[in-house]
Amino acid sequence: MSDKDGKSTLGFGGSGRSGQVKQSFSHGRTKSVVVETKRKRVVVPKPGATQMTEAQKEKNPLTARMAGDPSKRPAGISDAEMERRLKALAAAKSREVEDAANRLAEEKAREEERERRRAEIEAKEREEREREEALRLKAEEEERRVREAEERAKAKEEPKAVERPARAATATAARPAGARPAAPDRAAIEAAASRAEKPGIATGPRRTDRDRRDSGGDSDAKAKAKAEDSRRTGRLSLNQALDGEGGRQRSMAAMKRKQDRARQKAMGNVRAEKQVRDVQLPETIVVSELANRMAERAADVVKSLMKMGMMVSMNQPIDADTAELVIEEFGHKAVRVSDSDVEQVIDTVRDKDEDLQPRPPIVTIMGHVDHGKTSLLDAIRKANVVSGEAGGITQHIGAYQVTTESGAVLSFLDTPGHAAFTSMRARGAQVTDIVVLVVAADDAVMPQTVEAINHAKAANVPMIVAINKIDKPAADPQKVRTALLQHEVVVEQMSGDVQDVEVSAKTGQGLDELLEAIALQAEILELRANPDRAAQGAVIEAQLDVGRGPVATVLVQNGTLRRGDIFVVGEQWGKVRALINDKGERVDEAGPSVPVEVLGLDGTPAAGDVLNVVETEAQAREIADYRSQAAKDKRAAAGAATTLEQMMAKAKADESVSELSVVVKADVQGSAEAIVQALEKIGNDEVRVRVLHYGVGAITESDVGLAEASGAPVIGFNVRANAPARNSANQKGVEIRYYSIIYDLVDDIKAAASGLLSNEVRENFIGYAQIREVFKVTGVGKVAGCLVTEGLARRSAGVRLLRDNVVIHEGTLKTLKRFKDEVKEVISGQECGMAFENYDDIRQGDVIEIFEREEVERTL
């Protein structure tokens, strides 16, 4: 039977009567089974035990209210137990109030700090604007004075020009006819000439005090400068046109330069100080962009980085810490930017208390492999998921929703127990409200049990211990409770605060108590969420389906996810095309704590990414593009920010390291991540496994091409290669291996990596021989007459010549003879003749050590 054929697994129910259940099998076979249900033990309190005195009622009003109304108290709970649980509930509420007050105080302090910084920035900008306005007004005032002085000078010259012809005509008329004009005074002419030669002395008529007061000191200076310069200004007056004075006209650029000089002179000719800028600094930034934001030359920035030991060009990105050092060196201020402005459209408004509604708890089943986690969940769901798991172990994280007999709704997450699925267990602990730690009663605490305890403590979520397989003869629940004490988990039966329940997934024993414990813990937590806001959730698992495209299993944490919503998740975005619940049914919406499969993504997200609903498609695409580019820049910066010494050290270290390259494709994102983490742990100082590429979906031609270029095999976990990829692999000789159990995959890769290790050479001593006499043989050289004193002498073995227990020579034998015959070996106690290869310095009394070398294969 399976969980999709509409049939329920064998369960127990009823009122304690025995009866028969008819089982149906394939091919029309049936079988009748006698079923007997034991009546549930109910502890009835003694009469009068629930009566409380007035003083007790005043001291514990909650207990008095629960004791006065027996319908509100669970069966079999004493007054002391009820009082203890209500005290725990009150303490939890008080802690929640204190946490809320602390959060408000922290938020208020952060808001005050932001206001103070904003006021400082505004004051600085206001001072800068006032200074620039003062400089501009001063320059305009100076220019206005110059213009007024020129206009006054023109106004005085025009009446004099009109006056001179009239005065000359009057003098001519006054003179008698025939009279000559009076001779000019010689002294006056000489004085006028001397004044014309001296600079700064006017040659015209002397001005009165009133004229001086009208023109002012500045205009007098300008008039002197005008008298010195014989060239025309940029403006053409009527007198200049009539007089016909020639000369070069001043250009507009010259006029602007003149005005700039006057402005600098008015400002005191002070050189402007270097402007200190606030540089916006993201996580990664290109060197040229950093130079532009500082208003500095890119070559200077590159020079500064080279002084720090970083060989980068102006087009390479650097990390924020290095960029901050450069900014401080140039005298600017770095302003860290944590998130881009495009992500501000994501709704992060705090929900009001009146909008919050109760939500189902999210329960994660964790524990060691083969401790019965999935079987326990199947017994609760009345399904049979275990039969569909490869190898009988869970290798995917699953999300289910269960409605108990009392009407309570629970959301369960089933995590794998294998050591490779650490990331999956961590994700399950982060999104959960309650952790159910499953421990087998016949196996006690194991490594993954300890890891699950650590994940629960890190996530700060309450834990319930379910001691499974209690029906086995070797079950010892007390041993489990004692072993948990070593990891600071104290259960209630040992005066602790962690609930423990003895259950059996096979017989159904203790399942009701487990559900009751979960309901009690959820009631203490008071889980609430706002279903009327934009949805927010976490990606539990993601895969690439052949017919449906990218599919993500999402657990909605807040709000309601509906069909047609536009969302962004990690570096991907999409529009909800369909929502499928854990039973395979299509639904129109999913509220808080509801797990659903979401269709409509443009790519496969990473497991653990957060899903946020946005208003428009443009916003979703912009956020996804920004996150993708930020991730790409971060990866590039991590590779680029390497000093020359680090590069040389890495190259030297990699010379003696052998690499086994692989390409990994899996059915879901979590499995691919777990496989990559497991493979990266394989290896030592001599060999390591390198994952060239990993992803989800079927094996394609591009995967085969990458494997061929690198000489790597392709690993398929629960996926197959499509037809073009199979043909390409056959033509190119690329090996494709398929696996469905992670144990076999890791073992095979470990064996392949072990083959890259160099063999270990061992020496086995097989005998000793003593030289009794040395003979000289023509054509052979010196031959040692030896007696084998220990072991045997072999022709193919290696030999060492020892003289006074010091190795003189190591090599091989050229000949080994007994009498006149060449032999392969000589046993102990017999005499023989030996000659060394390319060595003749042998003496009487030397010892020959005979050994053999053996190569032993090494494994990881």
UniProtKB/TrEMBL annotation:
Compositional bias segments (type: Polar residues): 18-27
Keyword Cytoplasm listed? The answer is yes
**Location of the protein in the cell:** Cytoplasm
The positions annotated for binding GTP are 367-374, 414-418, 468-471
Q: Which molecular function terms from Gene Ontology are attached?
A: translation initiation factor activity
| Region of interest (Disordered), residue spans | 1-257
Bias (Basic and acidic residues) ranges: 93-166, 206-232
Primary location recorded for the protein, binned into one broad class: cytoplasm
**Key word GTP-binding present in the record?**
yes
* Listed InterPro entries: EF-G-like_DII (IPR053905), IF2_assoc_dom_bac (IPR013575), IF2_II (IPR044145), IF2_N (IPR006847), P-loop_NTPase (IPR027417), Small_GTP-bd (IPR005225), T_Tr_GTP-bd_dom (IPR000795), TF_IF2_bacterial-like (IPR000178)
* CDD domains associated with the record: IF2_eIF5B (cd01887), IF2_mtIF2_II (cd03702), mtIF2_IVc (cd03692)
* Entry keyword set: Cytoplasm, GTP-binding, Initiation factor, Nucleotide-binding, Protein biosynthesis
Q: Where is the composition biased (Low complexity)?
A: 167-194
- The residues covered by the Tr-type G domain are 358-526
Q: What is the stated purpose of this protein?
A: One of the essential components for the initiation of protein synthesis. Protects formylmethionyl-tRNA from spontaneous hydrolysis and promotes its binding to the 30S ribosomal subunits. Also involved in the hydrolysis of GTP during the formation of the 70S ribosomal complex.
What NCBIfam families is this protein classified in? Answer: IF-2, small_GTP
Q: Which family does it belong to?
A: Belongs to the TRAFAC class translation factor GTPase superfamily. Classic translation factor GTPase family. IF-2 subfamily.
Q: What is this protein called?
A: Translation initiation factor IF-2
What organism is listed for this UniProt entry?
A: Paracoccus sediminis
Q: Which gene encodes it?
A: infB
